[in-house]
Design brief:
2 copies of one chain form a homodimer.
Chain A: H1 7-24, E1 28-31, H2 34-41, E2 53-57, E3 64-68, H3 72-78, E4 86-89, H4 101-111, E5 118-121, H5 130-139, E6 144-147, H6 151-156, H7 161-183, H8 191-204, E7 243-252, E8 255-265, H9 270-289, H10 296-308, E9 319-322, E10 331-337, E11 350-353, E12 357-358, E13 363-364, E14 368-372, E15 377-379, E16 388-390
Parallel strand pairs in A: 1-5, 3-4, 5-6, 8-16
Antiparallel strand pairs in A: 1-2, 2-3, 7-8, 9-10, 9-11, 11-14, 12-13, 14-15
Helix pairs in contact in A: 4-5, 7-8, 9-10
Organism (chains A, B): Halobacillus mangrovi
Protein name (chains A, B): Ectoine hydrolase DoeA
Domain Peptidase M24 (chains A, B): 165-374
């Protein structure tokens, strides 16, 4: 087995997690977020559709993995956890109206003497359901429950050099997928045809590094859907005169580098020509400002003033911390680049800056994923930072 | 806007849901499962990474959609809900440590006079977190909470003819993706190269029907990973003499038809040659038995006896109800083909029958998705039901 990180890096992550547990008075941390399970143990499998958990006990050196019987081999294959710390529940606990995996887990925790301790749970994380909470509380009547939402995520916010290296590889894949996706766009080509091109290159990756599934599917709203950011592709053909917003991510070892561009099919309309320079100037101003010591809120202010100069305002946040993740989101849910966010930038924090402007019937998105360096910031991808115009020179009659 | 189903079909689904609500004494049903939101309203967007909800009030004709501001256009674009029933929360509720969308939702429900009623929540569904439950309870102190887990899923278990038609289209895509995926496998080709081929065709679909993202990524464990069903692909090359298990699904209008096959890279080893006929015979016996009036548990018994004759036993369930879904699972979590499941088969129930056999270091999976007909069962896909052998005739030196 080859882990994606040195064992010392996992130990360091675990140590930082335990320090935060101690700060919050948590003795036993029940981690159900797949990204946090991966971050601390290496565990990587599409098994988060059943209940599973990594248990961190503050005075034990090793985590416990508890999951479904048929996934235990996966825990042995992908983690640094000793085999005896991999605990499996039988298959009759899966999607049953009688048995619940959290009953099993409560019993295990009681058996190993953790039933009367202070227990942290990831209250607002995906895959930790209301039922999971209630069954755990019932199974551990002598435990004190504490909210550990984002506890591990805040450890993840500053990346190691190895994590940055994986994001660089993800960035190469993002550049490749964007290049191929944009090249596939002609009037008459269907949205699904372009989505297929993007997926092909995202997954195949480069000759050196294979790609992985991103935590969000590629989004490519077109026409009046460009004002609706989260609709997925259809099988309608692209229409000359419309725009397409492509948002995708390269993914390597579960690390994401997202990238968004707006593409005009045929010559750009006046609206796009007018707003694109405003967005590009705003992005440049934010990237020029980002450096250690500056807050996320200050970055938002720079953007707000930059676009207000041209008469524009934006309601949604501009960006968020990004890196390791699983569906349904590549964001880390910690720092947001928005008004009032007091997160202070540190070297090796990584953000997806996506200052979209949406109007009633259309919109524009141009994004960059960047790293905070010792003295400023640097982009991960190299794809041209501009409004992409697929003008008549490109329309070689390649209609599907 | 073109909805995937006739408005009368949505009305019928809503009526059946309200009947179940009445049976359980639920007056207000809060639906957070993306598949159930889609089933009742048409809503289809990759927005389930933030809290959102469809509210069914037993004495109101229209559901309410409540979600993020930037997704409200999507609700207007993809549902049959009147615009005034689309309610949006501001962006500062997103991934905030101060504001929670369920506070907003509790307030809305109180304002419209639903705060003191019997409220059903999908306690054990993805995306309904422990925190969501607690904040809702706090926001609706005069409501009585009831568990509505799987309430809508049990409405979904019998498909309409239009749903079956969409599954037939998904099946064509599954056949295509399997064909192209298998054809891409040679020694030296990387797992990610084959995953890319599969994704390309799954998403592109046929000339008539574009494909969509499946709720589970294609899985293709190879070598010693064939005993570990939920690991995803890597960038390691395939090795002659190993097997690959491909599990994928075609997806159309969010309806899935999964399909699994085992592929031998080079001549099949003795183990595979020995177990493949056992699995195929078992599948045939199950399909021959499936018809209205038979229970899921009886299907399991047929399989168990069929393989026991050859000296094999299997721990995990054999299959499950399948259809409409979103990540992370295409299963519907209602009926399982396993020991003791008393679900009685009805026409237009649809199942993924995947009687995998896993051993210590390898395994075999051959699956079929089938529909219960008036008198028996029928497969959705046409891909040859056999152990696939990529023998030397195929190894044309096409090494990546």
């Amino acid at each position: 087995m080859v882990l994606p990180f040195d064992i010392l890096e996992y130990h360091h992550r675990l140590k930082q997690t335990k320090e935060r547990m101690a700060d919050k008075g948590i003795e036993v941390l029940l981690i159900t977020d797949p990204a946090n399970m991966n971050y601390l143990s290496g565990y990587d499998a599409w098994s988060f559709y059943v209940h599973q958990m990594l248990v961190i006990i503050i005075d034990e050196p090793q985590p416990l993995w508890i999951g479904r019987y048929q996934d235990a081999n996966g825990a042995r294959a992908t983690t640094w956890i000793y085999d005896e710390n991999v605990i499996a529940y039988p298959d009759y606990f899966v999607h049953s109206d009688t048995y619940h995996p959290m009953d099993f887990i409560g019993e295990i925790l009681t058996q190993i003497g953790q039933g009367n301790r202070s227990v942290g749970v990831e209250m607002d994380h995906y895959y930790f359901t209301g039922m999971a909470l209630e069954r755990l509380k019932k199974g551990l009547p002598n435990a004190t429950f504490k909210d550990a939402t984002l506890l591990v995520n805040y450890v993840r916010i500053v990346k190691s050099d190895q994590e940055i290296e994986y994001m660089r590889r993800a960035a190469q894949i993002a550049d490749l997928a964007m290049t191929k996706g944009v090249e596939s766009i002609y009037p008459g080509v269907r949205e699904c045809d372009t989505a297929a091109e993007i997926y092909y290159h995202m997954v195949k990756g480069t000759p050196d590094y294979g790609g992985e599934y991103p935590a969000i599917v590629p989004l490519l709203p077109t026409g009046d859907h460009t004002s609706i950011p989260h609709l997925t592709w259809t099988d309608r053909p692209f229409v000359e005169g419309n725009a397409v917003i492509i948002e995708l991510a390269g993914c390597y070892k579960r690390y994401h580098v997202p990238l968004a561009r707006t593409v005009s099919i045929g010559p750009a309309n006046d609206k796009l020509k007018q707003v694109a320079p405003v967005v590009l100037e705003g992005i440049q101003n934010v990237l020029d400002t980002a450096k250690p010591g500056v807050t996320c809120g200050e970055l938002e202010e720079v953007w707000r003033k930059s676009i207000l100069k041209h008469g524009y305002e934006k309601e949604a946040r501009l960006g968020y911390s990004v890196g390791l993740n699983y569906p349904p989101d590549w964001g880390e849910h910690t720092a947001s680049i928005r008004k009032g966010d007091r997160t202070v930038l540190e070297p090796n924090m990584t953000f997806h800056l996506i200052p979209a402007l949406w109007f009633d019937t259309d919109g524009i998105e141009i994004s960059e994923t960047f790293r905070v360096t010792d003295t400023g910031s640097e982009r991960f991808t190299t794809y041209p930072q501009e409004l992409i115009v697929r003008d008549h020179m490109d329309l070689s009659g390649q209609i599907s």
